[in-house]
């Protein structure tokens, strides 16, 4: 049996038997994230501690297909709930350091590797798989964000610009929802065309329905 396979069994067994020790080390390594773990679980139902175990198991078992699928799931979930890339990056690097911490302990206690070549093989396997997770996570995170951004832009382009006449020369433009620079540009284009057609002298913009600007 290869050293990485032996290590995989030992790591999984160690984490199952020493769950609190494993989680305490993660908290220590990810100071900025640890205070948000409970809030993230309660608000968006993402269990970072459970996901840390899942990532480590896929890494040490060399389950590349499952690892890539898990990265896609995580990327979409974080993008969907507007969690930051900084948070995820810190968390994954904390998982990497925590895993290596226990790898070194187990290797010293049980002599899993006999020489440097075997240790370097384990190092390459672990780091390559974690990097593969990160690469696929970022690809799916940004892809989901880009898709949502394009959908929002398309929706903005088709939003009505309801100019309501009050008199022959005065009209009101009520706006609602979120207004950003892109939507302002669309509104400006449509309003100028409408003003030119209807020969409005005064346009009153009603911003009382704006949720965010």
Number of domains: 2
> Which regions have little confidence, pLDDT < 50, spanning 5+ residues?
none
Class inferred from helices and paired strands: mainly alpha
Mean pLDDT: 88
Q: Name the CATH class of the largest domain.
A: Mainly Alpha
CATH topology of the largest domain: Globin-like
Helix-strand topology string: HHHHHHHHEEHE
Strand arrangement across the biggest beta sheet: 1-2-3
- What is the terminal separation in angstroms? 61 Å
Shape: elongated
How large a portion of the residues is in β-strands, by DSSP E? 5-15%
Number of helices: 9
Q: Which oligomeric state applies?
A: single chain
| Helicity, as a percent range | over 70%
**CATH architectural name of the largest domain:** Orthogonal Bundle
**Main sheet, how many strands, which sense, barrel?**
3 strands, mixed
Q: How many β-strand runs?
A: 3
Organism: Peribacillus deserti
Domain STAS: 160-213
Keywords: Phosphoprotein
Protein name: STAS domain-containing protein
Give an account of the 3D structure.
This protein has helices at 3-17, 19-29, 31-34, 37-44, 48-60, 64-80, 85-110, 116-157, 181-198, and strands at 164-165, 170-178, 202-212. By secondary structure, the chain is mostly helical. A 3-stranded mixed beta sheet has the order 1-2-3, with no helix packed on it. Helix 9 (181-198) links the parallel strand 2 and strand 3. The longest helix has 42 residues, at 116-157. Residues 160-213 form the STAS domain. It comes from Peribacillus deserti. InterPro entries: Bact_StressResp_Reg, STAS_dom, STAS_dom_sf. Keywords: Phosphoprotein.
């Amino acid at each position: 049996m290869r050293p990485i396979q032996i290590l995989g069994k030992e790591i999984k067994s160690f984490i199952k038997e020493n769950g609190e020790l494993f989680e305490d080390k993660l908290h220590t390594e990810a100071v900025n994230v640890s205070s948000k773990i409970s809030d993230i679980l309660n608000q968006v139902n993402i269990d970072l501690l459970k996901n840390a175990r899942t990532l480590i198991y896929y890494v040490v078992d060399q389950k590349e297909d499952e690892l890539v699928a898990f990265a896609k799931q995580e990327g979409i979930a974080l993008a969907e709930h507007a969690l930051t890339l900084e948070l995820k990056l810190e968390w994954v690097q904390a998982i990497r350091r925590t895993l290596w911490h226990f790898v070194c302990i187990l290797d010293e206690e049980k002599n899993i590797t006999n020489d440097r070549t075997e240790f370097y093989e384990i190092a390459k396997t672990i780091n390559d798989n974690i990097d593969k997770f990160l690469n696929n996570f970022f690809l799916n995170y940004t892809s989901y964000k880009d898709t949502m951004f394009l959908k929002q832009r398309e929706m903005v382009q088709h939003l009505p610009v309801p100019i309501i006449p009050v008199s022959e020369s005065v009209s009101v433009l009520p706006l609602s929802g979120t207004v950003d620079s892109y939507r302002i540009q669309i509104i400006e284009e449509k309003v100028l065309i409408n003003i030119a057609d209807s020969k409005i002298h005064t346009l009153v913009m009603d911003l009382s329905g704006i949720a965010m600007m």
